[in-house]
Design goal:
The protein has about 375 residues and is an all-alpha fold. The chain is built from 14 helices and no strands.
Length: about 375
């Protein structure tokens, strides 16, 4: 009898120790996540403040802090040169805020699409948003529309591309668009819009400076879009698309188990899928319409973040937003300071993103799931 009780006690003891180890692992994981999120937040704030002083006209950090305090609280404590105030508040501040918002939009969209399609190689333009927006912008530039009209056209054509993809996938799937159908439809619509874009560039050869303007826009740049009106517009799009994605994080986690398992847990998979697509599309189309095509952010940054914090979207999504914002702020600094001219940021994101992603594919190919 005593031996039997000892056996039971040992079994309960082992179960208790196993539970303690799992609890400690969860505790260590949460601690690690908090440290990573805090470090990214501090790095983003530091990079943002330092970036306000970088450029051909240097502004010391001490002056930047005073200027920002005056700008926020409407005081007048700064006694330095007025040119510093103009450069910081009217030129660099809206541009850097736009960098942060675009980084948030593209990385959040990329992470959301990767979770939705259960594939870490998916980017925000998987449904043709970027190519559609490019066609709209190129048409507007060719027809000499205003900057605001160009943004509206780019946004409208980006949404049109996604509507066409969903419509085609729905027809092929007989009213229930499957993931593979949406990917194939996205490839078809993207190819079609790329052909239209090539045709527009061919027509623009004979137009005065239009081909150069179209080419520059397609490279992606913050040089002509850094204004507070653009910041406000993109901020609204970021909130409209980003807040629902943050609220749907646990449902995106559930979708990773498959549609049948998710439906068994009470998740309306079709509604979640459409909501994620609409929110991610709004964020991507808004970003592309503002600054042009900026590649690799939505593909690479969620992948890096997944290696840091794992596939749990409760942490992965906000961490991807922070890392995307930090990445674009740093890369924009390179675009502004490495040469005398303000180079398109899309060049730097491709140069940095492509080799980095190749490295991540070899390093993290075992880490998805």
């Amino acid at each position: 009898m005593t031996k039997k009780l000892d056996k039971i006690d040992r079994k309960e003891y082992r179960a208790l120790k196993k539970h303690e180890r799992q609890f400690m692992d969860d505790k260590d994981t949460r601690k690690k996540e908090i440290i990573i999120i805090t470090a990214l937040s501090v790095a983003l704030v530091a990079a943002f403040i330092l970036s306000l002083g970088l450029g051909r006209y240097h502004v010391p950090v001490k002056d930047i802090l005073i200027i920002l305090k005056d700008f926020i609280f409407k005081t007048s404590d700064f006694t330095g040169e007025k040119q510093s105030v103009v450069v910081v508040t009217l030129v660099r501040l809206p541009r850097l805020i736009l960098c942060v918002l675009v980084g948030i939009c593209l990385s959040a969209s990329g992470a959301a699409f990767q979770g939705l399609f259960k594939n870490p190689m998916v980017s925000p333009d998987i449904l043709g948003v970027s190519t559609g927006a490019a066609v709209g912008a190129c048409i507007a530039i060719l027809m000499d529309f205003s900057a605001f009209s160009t943004q509206v056209m780019a946004f409208a054509f980006g949404l049109l591309a996604v509507v066409l993809v969903l419509g085609l996938a729905s027809c092929l799937g007989k009213g229930n668009p499957q993931v593979i159908m949406m990917i194939l439809a996205g490839m078809v619509i993207s190819s079609l819009f790329n052909a239209v874009n090539t045709l527009i560039k061919y027509v623009a050869i004979d137009a005065d400076d239009k081909l150069a303007e179209i080419t520059f826009w397609l490279m992606g740049s913050f040089s002509k879009s850094g204004s507070f009106s653009n910041v406000l517009t993109l901020l609204i799009a970021t909130l409209v698309g980003g807040i629902p994605l943050l609220l749907l994080r646990w449902r995106i986690n559930v979708l990773a188990f498959g549609e049948e398992e998710a439906e068994a847990m009470g998740v309306n998979t079709k509604a979640v899928r459409i909501t994620v697509i609409v929110c991610a599309t709004i964020m991507t189309a808004s970003s592309v319409s503002m600054v042009g095509n900026i590649g690799w952010v939505g593909l690479t940054l969620p992948h890096i973040t997944r290696l840091l914090v794992g596939p749990n979207y409760k942490v992965l999504l906000p961490t991807s937003m922070l890392s995307g914002a930090l990445f674009l702020v740093v890369v924009d600094d390179l675009a502004r300071t490495l040469t005398a001219a303000d180079m398109p940021i899309g060049i730097f994101t491709a140069i940095i993103g492509a080799p980095l992603f190749i490295y991540l594919m070899f390093k993290g190919k075992r880490g998805w799931s």
